[in-house]
Structures are given as C-alpha cells and as structure tokens.
Amino acid sequence: MSAVLDPHDAHAHDDHHDHHAPAGWRRWVFATNHKDIGTLYLLFAFTMLMVGGVLALLIRAELFQPGLQLVNPGLFNQLTTMHGLIMVFGAIMPAFVGFANWMIPLQIGAGDMAFARMNNFSFWLMIPAALMLVSSFFMPGGAPAAGWTLYAPLTLQMGPSMDAGIFAMHILGASSIMGSINIIVTILNMRAPGMTLMKMPMFCWTWLITAYLLIAVMPVLAGAITMTLTDRHFGTSFFNPAGGGDPVMYQHIFWFFGHPEVYIMILPAFGIVSQVVPAFARKKLFGYASMVYATGSIAILSFVVWAHHMFTTGMPVTGQLFFMYSTMLIAVPTGVKIFNWIATMWKGSMTFETPMLWAVGFIFVFTIGGFTGLILSVAPIDINFQDTYYVVAHFHYVLVAGSLFAMFAGIYYWLPKWTGVMYSETRGKIHFWWSMISFNVTFFPMHFLGLAGMPRRYADYPMQFADFNAIASVGGFFFGFAQVYFFIAVIIPAMRGKGAKAVQKPWEGAEGLEWEVPSPAPFHTFETPPKLDITATKVIG
Predict the structure, then answer these.
(1) Taking every annotated instance into account, which residue ranges of this chain make up the domain Cytochrome oxidase subunit I profile (predicted)?
(2) Which residues lie below 8 Å from residue 395, measured CB to CB, with a gap of 6+?
C-alpha cells in the first residue's frame, strides 16, 4: 500500500509527540501504550532466550564427548525439558506477541490495541510464570524431567516442580488467550477507513489467523495438564493404566494442541518475511491473495495432522495412512508461500541490507527444515527416525531457522521505526553470517546422527557418534555467543539512541502505514485515523 500523508497530519504528529507520556518506572509498570507493551514483550522474550540458551549450551557441553562430563542423566533430562518449555512458551511466543503489539496498530492505522489494560495484564502475567519455570530447578527433586511434551506416565512420577510447571503453563496460556482476543478485536474493529481485510499487510493477516489458532488450542493444553494434575493429587486415572487410564490418550490431547502450536510459532514469521522481501525486492508481494488463502489452509490443516507425532504408538495402518497423507498435504500451502517469496524476488531490484539477508536466509534454511519434515511424514521412515537426532535437527531447522531468523529480519527492518536510529549495517551483517554459519554447523550434523540411530534426550552415547557431536557442540557455543554479540553491538546502542538518525522511511521499497509516521514512532499515533482511498490505496488525509 503506497501512502502519502497530508502535510497537516505530519504537524499533528509533531504536536502530539510524547504528549501525556508517563515517565519513569510508572511508564513501564502501568503501560497501556501498545508500543511500550511491545517493547516489554520483546525484552522479556530475549531474556528468556538467553536463559533457554544457557540450558542448551549445558546440554551441548555434556554431549561434547562420550561419557558423563558435567551433569548426571537426571539433571540432563531436566535441562532438555526446561530448554524446550522456556524456548517455546517464554521466548518464541512472547517475542511474536511483542511484534504484534508494536506493528499491528501502526500497520492498520489504529490508535492503540483494543483492550489496553488487558494488554498490560497479559504481559505482567508472564513474569510470575517465568519465575516459576526457572526456579523449578531449585525445588525438591529438581525441575520437571519428562521432556517438553510432558508425557504421562513420567509426569505422574515427578516431584513438586511438576506442579509449579503446570501452574506456570496455565498462566502463560491465559496470557496468550488474552493477547489473542486483543489482536483479533483490534484487527477486525479498528482498521483505518478504506483498509479492507484484503488490503491488510500480510503480517496482520498471519497474526489474525494465529490468534484464532491460539484461542482454539490453548484450552486443549490446559485440559491435558489439568488432567495430569488431578492424576497426581486427586486420585483420578486419566493417564494411569493401573486405574484404567491410558498414557497414549495424553499424547493425542497434547499433540492436538502441539501441532497447531508449531504453526502458531511460524505463521507470524511468514508474515514478517512477507513484509521484508517485497521491500528489498522493490516489488509488490507476488500472489497476495494466494498467500492469505495459503495461511488459512495451513491453520485448518494443522488440526488434522496431530498423530504424525505418534506413528510408533501402535495405531492401525488406516490411521497411519490418514495422518501421513494429511501431513504431506500441508506441504502444499507452505510451498505456495516459498514460491511466492521467490517470485517476488524474481527480476526485482534486489539489495541485501541486513533485514533482507535474514529473510533470504530464513527461506533457505526453513526450506531444508520443511523437506526433512516431509521425509518424517512418511510413516515407514518415521518409525525408524522416531525420537532420534534427525527429529531434533528437523524441528530446530523449522523453529530456530524459522521463527528466530524471521524475528531477526523483523527486528532489523523495524528497529529504525522503533528507536529512531539506524543500526550499524556492518554489525548486522556480522551477526547474520556468524549466526547462519554456526547454526548450520550445529544442527546439520544432527541429521547424520539421527540417520545413524542416535536417540535424543540421552546424556551419553556410543563412540561412533563422537565426531558429529563435537562439531555440533562447538557450533552451538558459537551460535549462542552470536546472539550475545547482537544484543551488545546492535540492540543496546539502538536503545541508547546511538547511531545515525533514522528518516521516516529508511527503506526505499518499504510500503505500509507504519512508514507514514516519524521515526521513532511517537507515543500517540493515528489519533485521527488515516483515511485510505479504496481505489488507489493512498492516504488522502
């Protein structure tokens, strides 16, 4: 959407710059402004990324060579469990909610999110939940050690930290549901006059669909962990075979949540890449409508593929065939997206500033992860690869190279709008190449470990797996330090306002309402909603 603001509007923005903006700690504790809450979410998510990253590096340090080096097998299982929970629920999901809070009102021309106080509440709920998760290491018996999937019957045998973990998941789920309601109401009710749904930026579309997914599946997770809780303390036998329960039923309930959850973590990433690629190709997004429909198709299909995580539980061949074919089918709309991004770049006036590097890097590595997922969808193959490092490699290619790389594309793309200063392009490129190389050094060898039969979640392994594990561990440490470099060299200077002053529209090919407000975006934007010309998609003042 090309947009030109009336000069009177520009003056209106200057007049209202930081108008009524609270100062000091009250600005953050009682924040109701969508930008401040977005910033809080992003900083919280980065903190949790570092905590989860430290756990990952402890895992890789232990696996650097065969034998037990640093931790015993029990603590090793606690590390793998908490690494997964913290990264999924503490880092990836809150980070995308931070992006949504910052960008959705700016992109649709809304003054703020629909429910400002609920927005504040949904953020602050996450702090006690995060503290409970992290402090579980110090409880009697240590942290939960049932894997991030929290399978019964292991969960029925854990110490009190399991209850803390369940409580934390409930709180994080409530936060997600409130955030989703806020996003849906904001997008459906607060778009600028003239902005129809099919003129919305792709990022808003992907988040609208993601929010519906969250509202549909978070209660399912809540049900599964509540049944676990009653099995543990109130004498029920949902998952306890001794009382007539079925541990496999837990897996069905969990994965009915868990597979849409995977798309909850990747759809906003698709939205970010769909904003960045057209900006640096200097072309409109190829096949906008097909991108919208593909996103919707992925969301619907994600509800009928859950048992592809369960091919080894003894399901009948008919069930295996259904889940195998439905899983293969979900590759089609994903392929549509990748085709459209490449078609957008085709014959475009491409430049490779840092956001574009991350976006192209995302497309490359996410495609690898997508292909390994297609391989795992074939039931006879999956039965052999089940619970091996091939699965670990696959989902890290999808989630680290997927969600995280797209987040970095979005951060570099919108950072000038957030902070009012340009980051150092050299430092951004160092961060990209350092991360890209070390990521592949870490996770590509895991495909070979899995093909050779190395099981995951084991603290020790036979000698034949030593070389690839040593390579993966070294790569892991380099990847972790790359993110510390990013924070010190890119984020801190930007937050302190150090760097060249950003112009209103720092990227030549960028389009959308967010580029019609000054950099940094003023505390109050769009007090008078911009009116869009429906035919020309221009702001007419």
Answers:
(1) 19-533
(2) 262, 369
Under a CB-based contact definition with an 8 Å cutoff, are residues 345 and 277 in contact?
Answer: yes
Provide the pLDDT for residue 226.
Answer: 97
Clarify whether 259 is annotated catalytic.
yes
Catalytic residue among 180, 210, 274, 442: 274
Tell me whether residue 148 is one of the annotated catalytic residues: yes
Is 252 marked active-site? no
Q: Is 233 a catalytic residue?
A: no
Q: Is 456 a catalytic residue?
A: yes
Q: Where are the domains of the chain?
A: 22-247, 266-522
Check if CATH label 1.20.210.10 holds for domain 22-247.
yes
Cβ neighbour number for residue 132 with a 10 Å cutoff? 20
Task: Determine which one of 35, 191, 337, 447 is catalytic.
Answer: 337
Residue of 191, 259, 394, 431 marked active site: 259
In the block, tokens 């392009």 appear at: 425
pLDDT in tens, 79-106: 999 999 999 999 999 999 999 999 999 9
Q: Do 22-247 and 266-522 show the same overall fold?
A: yes
Q: Is 344 a residue of the active site?
A: no
Answer yes or no: is pLDDT of 539 > 70.
Answer: no
Active site residue 309: yes
The pTM is what? 0.94
Among this protein's residues, is 496 annotated catalytic? no
pLDDT tens-place string over residues 388-442: 999 999 999 999 999 999 999 999 999 999 999 999 999 999 999 999 999 999 9
Q: Which amino acid is at 169?
A: M
**Lookup result for tokens 């150090």:** 498
Q: Quick: pLDDT tens for 267-294.
A: 999 999 999 999 999 999 999 999 999 9
